[in-house]
Records
---
Amino acid sequence: MVWLSLIATGGADEPVGFSGARAFRHLETIAALGPRPSGSPGMEKQRDLLVAHFQAFNAAGARVSRQAFQIRDRRTGQPVRMENLIVEWHPDRKERVLLGAHYDTRPYPDRDPVDPRGVFLGVNDGGSGVAALMELAAAMPGLPGPVGVDFVFFDAEEYVFSPRDPYCLGSNFFARQYAAAQQAGGGHRYRCGVILDMVADRDLEIFQEQHSASWPDTRPVVESLWGVAARLGVRQFVPRPKYTVEDDHVPLRMIGRIPTCDVIDFDYPQWHTTSDTLEHCSGESLEAVGSVVLAWLRGLE
């Protein structure tokens, strides 16, 4: 199988590779926390888990920061504290790439035909991108070249209780903050970005997202990623557009002016149902995505 041939152990003279088995263990740990909607105890536990995981790389150059913001719950009017997490790798490099994932889960499995107010674990939708970035961490200290990388975990992508509620609150806030910093003439610059969302589907097929493939500034990012997949023989990346998805890449590109593409398998029958569980996800799928992203990062000049 292709995914097994891509695992690298990272010996003394060998770059660290992406292990789907390790990534799946991270996914199991996340799933064990239960539902993780914004502002919930599950989200707090997950945030603590992620901060501890990435702070373990401090000596290797990782820098973890929190980006807090607040919204009002549309049901009650009460304030809800949100928090994006940012992990900077090689923070001295001014030219940077953003790898993002939302780490909240939808409050309820509203598309479930039997129990739309049941328990939603969000293992693939919410957990898989997080697990992939956790596994990518081991390879980041040795990342060659002039480009730095930021992992950004967006809160409140799906803090949605009714069709009128807005999506992508965390990425909107992040994009506004970044745009303001750029206008003021300070800080780093993002060359481009990649969002990882629903990337652990056991039956993985990642078509090119329509926005990402059609925007002139994001099309080269799509072509380069899918080109790496073709070179590695990762057939789960299908080199043609299929779905239009309103995801975190939209505010990053439209507000932050960061050319950002969405890597997502939107053909997931368990989407927003109580069946979005570990049994419908696999380490092989995580490895297919993680190996492509890692090889793509190592090829940046």
---
Amino acid sequence: MSTPEHPSGAPWRNFYGRRHGKTLRDTQREMLDEDLAELSPGPVDWDVNPDRTPLDLKALFGDRPVWLEVGFGGGEHMVHQAALHPEVGIIGCEPFINGVAMLLGKIRNAGVQNVAVHPGDVRDLFDVLPEGSIQRAFLLYPDPWPKKKHHRRRFVTPEHLEPLARVMAPGAIFRVATDIPDYVRQTLEEVPRHGFDWLAERPADWREPWDDWLSTRYEQKALREGRTPHYLTFRRR
């Protein structure tokens, strides 16, 4: 049976999870209306960009190296990295609109100007990112999809890792943080199969956070509930 396609020729993609949560405050709606279009990296919707024209990252960030955060949650880590590394441009991808609204508030408060926001599925963003264009990627406390029958929905599957590998430059760094042991297992099995080397040499390399780490609200929840974070670092071959 063939995979259904959008009229543009791009494949249909199932999306799992929520796009909306609690009712947004008026100030959050205002930020979505006023700020989001300006921070968008470019047209990634099928109807707007049916030919899936690659993004012009030079027009977006100049000569800065480009980093990508997949599923930025509330945005605290992304804004922290943007403020700490003004020499890079960071694209954040998050389909949960409440998280996008939270990020926009943090961007306003921090005044960072080296960020772009894609409020949607990262697979659509992969379609328009140029090959080898990403120097660093972050996957921090992704949805664990704990039921075995849902493991195929996880990010660390070929559907996501193959295009991730395509858009990452040789030598680029991919960081994964999770508190779910089975997610660690699947990550260590799948990520190296798609062109990455795990850089750990000693237990501290996965037990201790990175030097520029900012603990997220998801990590704080995990710690309160007695779960152990793991910090995995890979390099694109």
---
Amino acid sequence: MTKKVILILILLQTIVCSSVVAQSKRSNEWITGGGGARVKFTGSGIITTDDHFILSYFTGGNSAISDTNGNLILASDGFNIYDSNANYIDDGDTIVPVSYYNQYNGWNSLSQSSIFLPMDSNKYYFITPANSEGNLCFSCHNDVMLYSVIDMDANGGAGKVVKRIIPFAENGQFRKTQMMACRHANGKDWWLLKQAGDSNRVHKFLFQQDTVIDKGYQQFDYPVWGAWDITGMSTFNADGNKYATTSHGSSSGKVFLADFDRCYGELTNPKEIIMPKGSQYNPNFPNDSERLAKGVAFSPNNQFLYVIGQFNIWQYDLTDNSWFHVTGMDTTFMQFQHYDASYYGSDGKLYIGNFGGLSKQMSRIDNPDVKGAGCNFCPRCLRLDTLGVNTAYAGTPPCMPNYSLGAQICWPESTKDIENNKKKLEVYPNPSSTSLYIKTESKEQRELFNSIGQLLFTTKENEIDVRKYSKGVYYLKVASKFKKIIIE
């Protein structure tokens, strides 16, 4: 490896480390549930306070973001933006079309229907799907994607919405749920992925510092979700290189998995998994409710995927494709409050919300990196029932991306130099699941890197056995030439 490449790697490693430190506390404070209870994660534990956001319900469409010290800056019920004192931020009320706002009585119970994305200069994007004026019905998909911009330096430091309700996609068939963001590999911008339609169509948008770019969509043959889209969830793993999404519209527990390229926004290696049967369900409608998938979450070590059903929670091992039934209902059917969307707290534990009813607690998984029963499901262990009468019920954690994700190396794929390299460096078959064969005139070392720039293998041979490597995107470097390869 040349001195120039080594220097680039060192600089990027520095960027990654500093970004993680700076961003690691942005998810420290939550506003959740009916009455908007405050939950704050600290180094010594969790603080729940009776300092409520009593104006609204933070029960599904809610989102929040803290500053880099872990102090709440902004919160939303999906339709309004509040400051840390539970007041509307300047120009932050009714941040969707008025008719859509009124249709849902001024708050949004649909999961993943709002999200905050931090940018430079103390500015924040706020994003929400909606229905445009004149296109209202509860059974319709959303037809427009909207953003607003908050400048927290404006208004004497109190913050202000400086751009309101700007459409960045119109005349669409966007699902009401299943929206998540992942930081771009440059460590500054954001990818936003949004499911659309009854089929598996994934729209991709790039949020840059001063503009939003529609990057089109990718269409996959499976799963077919169905028209019902009032619950569902999308997520990325801790490294941002895997994507998962689910919806219970088809009532069949289907989950879509794919690799994600943070540099170019491409989804590859698509796969469908299905929640097993033989679990707990509504005894009155067993065929309709046994596998209603509502949430997904990768484990921090990227080995497991937790699939949250209405009545069941499963752990799927991505290394051996095995399933473990974490839990069913924690009480009788008549008393049970459905499991719903799940997010990690700053303590590394997975918190699972409730949908409907008057539950004032959330359940959690204490050891999500452990296979099987050792993951330790803890029923109703985040308790809000001590906070007084203003807490109507717990709802779900706020929708938050991984704010800790930093920068990574982007290889110069699709540049003019790479086009010229194709004549001098060939790799076949590509994709491959067994061996790669290299054709080049160079006598230099052949170096295989993963997508984040880690050197995996060095040889001078023209054949590389790739059977021991996981599926995904890799890069082969020979002298100054690069080639993107896919292991499947």
